[in-house]
Design a protein that fits this description.
380 residues, alpha+beta, Beta-lactamase, 2 domains, 7-stranded antiparallel β-sheet, two-stranded antiparallel ribbon, 16% strand, Beta-lactam_cat, signal
Length: 380
């Protein structure tokens, strides 16, 4: 069962350090009480022999029969060591796209846990910085976001089910479809030629009527966000199982529609698509390793911009548009995977703002504030 903590304007989360201190004291008391109970239940030595029973009987083995919730060790362990051992004994939650449907659909900012662990707590400063970054965007347009530690299953989310025009951000998940479903299965090869069957963008690199390899077109669509490369791939391969792939992930708002290549979808669907991307990259196949490297150099990423100066590695795809004639399509989107200190996080940000430097800076500030929650989301 998913566990949530919904944050409103009048409710603050517990201070993490205070909570850890409280839990440490409680665990210390429990260990002492358990030790006292064990001593009280010990049989008294026989007054003549000084033994606890017949000399021929071996004592019952107790190793491996630990009391649930109590970590047994050898010697004397300090409380931090006990807590560390307890955390290391936990198994990572097995995340599925279906499990993401258990996260509440609420207009409030929420933290959640998809494991048996309780929903995490945010430091007051972290919470304040996040809400400040949210408000700066919300004063200008709609917003949805998601961040989760894929090992712990803990995360933070806002407005998961409001649809946003995805723009070029969908080029990343579509590249995963091509590699995962067509190339890995042998239906298509990276060096197959693909015709350029459209010219939707006069600034695109590919002229109508030409051709290039599938590999080169994927690279151009992801790294350079080339629209002609992307649309040609869609027109060529959409009918080879795209709808089945998307619905199999529980993504129902990105169906194949002839002549329409840039879907409108919600942050929850984006999270599912990138969780699937993480699972695909985990296979370690040659094609998945190549695609991950391609996504790590995708241009125009406000998530990557936000994490400059850290050791984080970002594999993502952004999308952006500014239109005075069709303002309903105005959007700044970025979503992907963040590798940091041995852990992986999914981050998705969808903002209904027209593309400009000012709005990119606001989205970058939000991405930085979201990333600052990673310590609260991770088991140490």
């Amino acid at each position: 069962m998913v566990k949530h903590v919904v944050i409103s304007a009048t409710v603050r989360l517990w201070n993490t350090k205070a909570l850890q201190t409280f839990l440490a004291c409680a665990l210390a008391i429990a260990v002492v009480l358990c030790a006292s109970c064990d001593a009280a239940d010990e049989p008294k030595p026989d007054s003549a022999t000084g033994t606890t029973g017949p000399a021929t009987e071996a004592p019952e083995e107790s190793a491996g029969k630990e009391t649930p919730g109590v970590v047994r060790g050898t010697g004397t362990a300090s409380m931090p060591e006990v807590q560390k051992a307890a955390r290391e004994s936990r198994a990572s939650v097995e995340l599925t796209c279906e499990l993401l449907d258990d996260i509440a659909s609420t207009p409030d900012l929420q933290v959640f846990s998809l494991s048996e662990e309780p929903a995490p707590a945010l430091e007051t400063k972290t919470y304040d910085n996040l809400t400040k970054a949210m408000q700066a965007i919300q004063s200008k347009g709609d917003l949805g976001f998601f961040m989760m530690d894929v090992e712990s299953g803990a995360g933070i989310a806002y407005n998961l089910d409001e649809p946003f025009y995805g723009a070029s951000s969908f080029k990343g998940p579509y590249a995963v479809f091509l590699c995962q479903e067509l190339i890995e299965t042998g239906k298509v090869k990276l060096d197959d030629e693909c015709k350029i069957c459209t010219r939707v963008d006069k600034l695109g690199s590919y002229p109508f009527g030409g051709s290039d390899t599938v590999q080169n077109l994927i690279y151009a669509a992801v790294v350079e966000s080339d629209n002609n490369a992307y649309v040609s791939l869609r027109d060529t391969f959409d009918t080879l199982g795209y709808d089945e792939w998307a619905t199999g992930l529980g993504v129902k708002d990105c169906p194949w529609t002839q002549g329409f290549h840039y879907p409108t979808y919600c942050t929850r669907s984006s999270a599912k698509l990138w969780l699937n991307t993480y699972r695909y990259f985990e296979t370690g196949s040659d094609t998945s390793v190549w695609l991950e490297a391609v996504m790590q150099i995708a241009e125009d990423s406000f998530i990557r911009e936000a994490l400059k100066g850290t050791d984080a590695v970002v594999a993502d795809k952004g999308g952006w548009i500014a239109s005075d004639d069709e303002p309903e399509y105005n959007v700044l989107v970025d979503a992907g995977l963040i590798e940091y200190e041995g852990r992986t996080y999914i981050m998705c940000v969808m903002a209904g703002l027209p593309d400009c430097e000012e709005h990119r800076a606001l989205c970058s500030d939000l991405a930085a504030a979201l990333f600052a929650t990673h310590e609260s989301l991770s088991w140490k």
